[in-house]
Amino acid sequence: MRLVVISDIHANLEAFRAILTRIDEIKPDRILCLGDIVGYGPNPNECVEIVKKRVDVSLSGNHEYGVLGRTDLRTFSENARIACEWTREVLSEENFAYMRELPVSCVDEGMFLVHSTPLNPERWNYVFTARDASLQFSGFGESICLLGHSHVPACFEEGGGICTLSESNPLYLKEGRKYIINIGSVGQPRDYDPRASFGVIDTEEKKVQLIRISYEIEVVQRKIINRGLPLFLAERLKIGA
Ligand code: ZN
Description:
alpha/beta, 20% strand, Calcineurin-like phosphoesterase domain-containing protein, single chain, Ap4A_hydrolase, 241 residues, binds zinc ion, 6-stranded mixed β-sheet, 32% helix, 8 helices
């Protein structure tokens, strides 16, 4: 079974379309989306509609919770809050209804899927370091947990450190070990590589591959500015941070 894993699209339609072109070539059996379809970016309705059509499993992220009023926007950064409030104004009733039904975690293909962390997912904590990850392995019984939220690709092995994920050297997971895997962000990468990021998992070969795709960042930047969203949200796309 070949699975495509995407996360943190953040209403970036150009990045999303660019990865879909590659996904069409990969022809995966299933597409899993780990949340934050909206927030920050200028095309929330378009991105939610594509997710509805194309994705097999879809989770809620903290930006969906912010837009729905389930998480207090005072806990967000100012730029995130402004973008969430703008998203609330423009989002269609059908897309609100879709977002309300999304779970925060699930088990699919024998893997645990969540936007933030396996333990207390609605606290929206982050997994950045091997220590952050070490606290989370007790939160799932499966051998693999896929998560997003930090926008930084990483793979953590239980009892070990961080393994590198890359396009040229796919990672082969060891039998009998537990892993927490973040495949990065489609629409707002923060690992100083501005290209859109997603992952491909081959469940038979136990292979995880990160894929990076260039897209027209300037088009998205112009839309962010034209919609009156914070300038910083346009600038950060160029540096991938
Ligand atoms: Zn996010």
